[in-house]
Design brief:
Largest sheet: 5 strands, mixed
Oligomer: single chain
Strand order of the largest sheet: 3-2-4-1-5
Helix content: 10-25%
Distance between the termini: 50 Å
């Protein structure tokens, strides 16, 4: 299972089964597809924590809440996780480089990646012809 997001904190107690964790480094506008630089780090989620939240929801082991009355595990706690930090403010170019990385045979096949999670959003206004404009803004009133 690959998570392309803000990154994944592989040092989190619930995520001790992150098999591969990389951060996209450098400008993707000056690099052809497949030529981006990836840096392997234990913690690639250095800004928002969103990617770590997503990874925990998917594959959290429950270790961090062990001993409590309510152990919190992900929906697939035994899943092998591959984290890709594709930027703190996710750009479509960084996301595409993340896909390129995950689909490399040495990543996809080695870690048995069959699912890729992409939990992205936008704070822009909704425009039905522009997919990146989802979700819609709150309705406005006209005078």
């Amino acid at each position: 299972m690959a998570i392309i997001d803000s990154g994944v904190d592989g040092t989190h107690a619930d995520l001790d089964h992150v098999a591969n964790n990389v951060k996209l480094a450098g400008s993707v506008t000056d690099t052809p597809v497949g030529g981006a630089l990836y840096v392997e780090l234990p913690n690639t989620d250095t800004s928002s924590g969103h990617g770590t939240h997503v990874a925990s929801t998917i594959g959290g082991s429950g270790e961090a809440s062990a001993g409590s009355t309510r152990v919190r595990r992900g929906v697939a706690p035994g899943a092998t996780l591959v984290g890709v930090g594709a930027g703190d403010g996710l750009s479509i170019l960084y996301a595409l480089q993340g896909f390129d990385y995950v689909m490399r045979p040495e990543v996809r096949d080695t870690h048995n990646v069959r699912i890729i999670s992409n939990s992205w959003g936008s704070s822009g206004e909704f425009a039905p012809t522009i997919p990146s404009a989802w979700p819609p803004s709150a309705p406005t009133t006209q005078e």
